[in-house]
Design brief:
single chain; mainly alpha; three-stranded antiparallel beta sheet; about 10% strand
């Protein structure tokens, strides 16, 4: 069953990548996740990202630097702690992320075509239970 979930996510990410390559930016999966983090938490720091993701700080530093170099992230020194940098999506980053979000919504609708609202709700509930089971196993 989990192999099927993995296969679905692979198809989803492949479609997402094709969409991104058609645009001005060729973004990797982790770059999309980093942009999503700062889209939801404008003004967060790279340390906040590391704490949230559990990823290697050096890997995240390279990702953030690359996104800044491409003009997708803006950085501002923290007023209270000049050693810390607050990050948020640039205008170009916001436009790119909005386009990705629209595409993701259309992709989700295509994936769920033919499912009733009740079936969608049941699927969401079941996936939430699987997620909770896996989280509980990590304690």
């Amino acid at each position: 069953m989990l192999e099927r979930v993995h296969a679905i996510m692979h198809l989803y990410r492949s479609a997402q990548q094709r969409s991104l390559r058609a645009g001005p930016h060729d973004l990797a999966h982790m770059e999309i996740k980093v942009l999503g983090f700062f889209a939801r938490r404008p003004g967060a720091t790279q340390s906040d990202l590391a704490a949230h993701s559990g990823r290697d700080k050096a890997q995240l530093a390279r990702l953030v630097r690359g996104l800044r170099d491409r003009g997708l992230l803006d950085a501002v020194a923290d007023e209270a702690d000049k050693r810390s940098t607050r990050l948020s999506l640039s205008e170009e980053g916001k436009a790119m992320f909005a386009a990705l979000h629209v595409h993701d919504g259309a992709l989700a609708e295509a994936a769920l075509a033919g499912l009733t609202e009740a079936e969608r709700s049941t699927l969401l509930d079941l996936l939430a239970r699987v997620h909770a089971n896996l989280e509980a196993g990590q304690d």
